[in-house]
């Protein structure tokens, strides 16, 4: 008599499969949102750099000073030290634009790295969540098919009782 292998398999409910799919769909959504958030520092830097270049083209010292002050919050620590030595002139505005371009590119790389790391970590957590939901197998061991049922408390079948 052949034993049907399908009877020994653990059945997985459709609810568990749905929860697993939801966990991985969340990972996909986070990845999609990450692609939109990655260029934010570069776009902000580009907008301020455009303001700097317009001020230089206008040759208006007030506009140049205002544009340089707008760029200040976007600069990193090293660039701020260099920015402190710049005068509000056309050359100072060009130097600020170069500093801003460097720092916004570095900011975009940093944001991209952090978002990739976030997607990887959440992916691993979602996979572990899925494994936990579906279960690796039955927690209690299955008795062999050829063994006879035992009475409760009969854990030593080979020892004769006197």
Low-confidence stretches: none
For the sheet with most strands, the description reads:
none
- Radius of gyration, whole Å: 33 Å
Shape: rod-shaped
Considering DSSP H and I runs of 4 or more, what fraction of the residues is helical?
Answer: 55-70%
Strand content: under 5%
Number of DSSP E strands: 0
Order of helices and strands: HHHHH
Distance between the termini: 38 Å
**Average pLDDT rating:** 78
The total tally of domains equals 1
- DSSP helical segment count: 5
Which structural class fits the helix and strand makeup?
mainly alpha
Helix-strand layout with pairing:
Blueprint: H1 14-37, H2 40-58, H3 61-71, H4 77-83, H5 90-134
Helix pairs in contact: 1-5, 2-3, 2-5, 3-5
What does this structure look like?
This protein is mostly helical. It has one domain. It contains five helices and no strands. Helix 1 packs antiparallel against helix 5 and helix 2 runs antiparallel to helix 3. The longest helix has 45 residues. It is rod-shaped, with a radius of gyration of 33 Å. The two termini are 38 Å apart. 12% of the residues are buried.
Summarize the model shown.
The chain contains five helices and no strands. It is mainly alpha-helical and 162 residues long.
